[in-house]
Amino acid sequence: MLYSKIEGEGKPLLILHGFLGMSDNWKTLGTQFAAGGFQVHILDLRNHGRSFHSDIFTYEAMVQDVFEYCQANNLDKVDIIGHSMGGKTAMFFAAKHPEKVNKLIVADIAPKYYKQHHQDILAGLNAVDFSVKPSRNDVEAILAAYISDFGTRQFLMKNLYWLEPGQLAFRFNLPVFNTNLEAIGKELDVNLVFNNPTLFIRGGASRYILDSDFENIKQHFPNSNIETIPNVGHWLHAENPKMFYELSIDFLKK
Q: Which residue numbers delimit the AB hydrolase-1 domain (predicted)?
């Protein structure tokens, strides 16, 4: 069963993080949505955070995980927010189980195929040799040689934890990512359609959702709108959480 953090009372709202993320990334926004009248379930997807590790890493498997989570927690109908890989998982889930989803919010990802582009990040993560028992500062210095963006490094560093005294490790399943990375870019099958209200929120400085993607989005999500948060990149919910929350809560409360 997937690990989750549950907060608040009201309509169930699932939040699905992106690749190499975890539920902790959504802690502050989750509390806001709980205060807004939702029972918030922030999940750790398989091979991430505190959830189980598996050699199987596909959207089909992640959709089944979310379905089984809903069944186990007696969640008949939910709203879903998904970012990046979590947004693609949410799209697949909503299209395959439309009876389970009231409203869908997709953050900075389109239904299209994405060519793999995490090579530098994976190279940095694979360069960390935990057998020599590096400190947190040592790990960050290694990552800095591969990843110039400070924010990205801090995002990745949140995955560090003490496996035992003096021994750090990453929470995510790096060996499986090394062999299954192409699966993250998979597009929605042409016949998958979700007709309920859907909101796409993109970062104005991000290249993940282009104007040229609007037609494809409408084909899969005919009852959708697209909003842009200006001057933010792919981690739009972290860069401008206020506007992200306002757009989301207005949509969910309609």
A: 11-109
